[in-house]
Amino acid sequence: MNYNKQHEEDLQRIRGLRLIDDDFMNACFDGNIEGTELILRIILGKSDIKVVNVHTQQVMKNLLGRDIWLDIDALDSEGKEYDIEIQRADKGAGFKRARYHSSILDAHTLKPNEDFAKLPETYIIFITENDVIGENEPIYIVERQIVNIGKPFDDGEHIIYVNGANKDGTTELGRLMHDFMCTSPDDMNYKMLADKVRYFKEDEEGVKAMCKAMEDMRNEAVEKDRIENAMTMIKDGKLSLEKIAEYTSLALDKVRELAAPKVAQ
Description:
By secondary structure, this protein is of the alpha/beta class. Helices cover 44% and strands 18% of the residues.
């Protein structure tokens, strides 16, 4: 594709991006302590939350199963950890996914032989474009309970679903969800979010960063396709590793790595 045409397509796409879109959210919230504090304070109704660390697309490895990527991983001044997941597709916000994220978060918070009592409070928060639970509530708060006596279990695990379809302008949460769906910073309610969106949509350096991010995502997609094709050829066993490297445009060392037997951890 012609570079100028691709650049114009990228610019057009940037104009249409919203905070509910993964790639744009990654850019707007990475290292953005004030913005993360804002959304946590509104969602949890706690005005005193102090975020001390925040990153996007944090990888949490699971040697025995599936790794996870946290959309927004934040830590507050009290040691509470937050995983904020942005989901446009309903199937990406399944209840068992929330359970899995919670378990992996727990597995990464304790050092070997550390007492279980030191597990921090964790919050798994799904911000969804649609009302995935379907009860027409702006927010759904999930807590464990000792069912037969009706008392909370109080293990420090919290799961929350925020209904992005709720844009009630009379509430802070509704105004926040409105901002997540906006394409123009001029239409947003919260200045600190609008300023970040404006930077990546209108500032020369911010737009350049977004264009670079889009280029990187295209390259990653191409690399993923090459690896998947190579794995199929390796499994088939009809071609030499040298030929697989030639046909997929992967480095021979990479193909050898893919073909090497996996050692159990």
